[in-house]
């Protein structure tokens, strides 16, 4: 009996994690309408290849091992703060959202840096890049970044959302 209950509980957890990865869930809060509009103008939404990265592609770990599953679950638990702030009304208007954008963006950038832009690398790989088909500047910068061990987020902040202006006296992220 315990195994059946455990199996059902695990199935429900997996279902919930998959459901909360879906774009409609991500943008269901009023506060997410602002970043969603920005994302729809980005190359991650519309591009010549027709490939589309959604919220969970960039904001949720993709690792397949047990540690990756724990990282994914941790990301979901930490994302609950966004729902909390939505309910509190602390980011429910453009003005309130913009006031916190720098701190929120830095929190995401710091996580991406710590993970060596693993979410980016789920789709983008140095060894798959055709440097000769990139424009000269991009090709040169990508080669240098690869040689120097830089990570995607070192250069690509603001790729899917507007990059916030640094406040004169930034809050601690």
Overview of the structural elements:
The structure is a single chain. The chain is mostly helical and 173 residues long. Helix content is 55%, strand content 0%. The longest helix is centred in the middle third of the chain and has 23 residues, at 66-88. One of its GO terms (biological process) is anaerobic respiration.
How do you describe this structure in short?
This protein is mostly helical and 173 residues long. The protein has eight helices and no strands. Residues 1-165 form the NapC/NirT cytochrome c N-terminal domain.
CATH domain class: Mainly Alpha
Helix and strand sequence: HHHHHHHH
CATH fold-level topology: Multiheme cytochrome fold
Given the structure, what is the number of helices?
A: 8
Number of domains as seen in the coordinates: 1
Q: What is the beta-strand fraction?
A: under 5%
Subcellular location: Cell membrane
Membrane topology: Single-pass membrane protein
Protein name: Cytochrome c-type protein
Organism: Magnetofaba australis IT-1
């Amino acid at each position: 009996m315990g195994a059946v209950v455990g199996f059902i509980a695990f199935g429900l957890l997996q279902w919930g994690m998959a459901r909360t990865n879906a774009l409609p869930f991500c943008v269901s809060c009023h506060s997410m309408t602002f970043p969603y509009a920005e994302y729809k103008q980005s190359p991650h939404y519309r591009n010549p290849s027709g490939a589309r990265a959604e919220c969970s592609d960039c904001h949720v770990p993709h690792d397949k091992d047990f540690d990756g599953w724990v990282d994914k679950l941790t990301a979901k638990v930490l994302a609950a703060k966004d729902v909390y702030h939505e309910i509190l009304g602390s980011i429910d208007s453009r003005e309130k959202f913009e006031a916190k954008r720098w701190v929120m963006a830095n929190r995401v950038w710091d996580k991406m840096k710590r993970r060596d832009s693993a979410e980016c690398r789920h789709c983008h790989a140095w060894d798959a890049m055709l440097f000769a088909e990139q424009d000269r500047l991009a090709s040169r910068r990508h080669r240098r970044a690869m040689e120097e061990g830089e990570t995607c987020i070192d250069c690509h902040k603001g790729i899917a959302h507007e990059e916030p202006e640094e406040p004169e006296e930034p809050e601690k992220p």
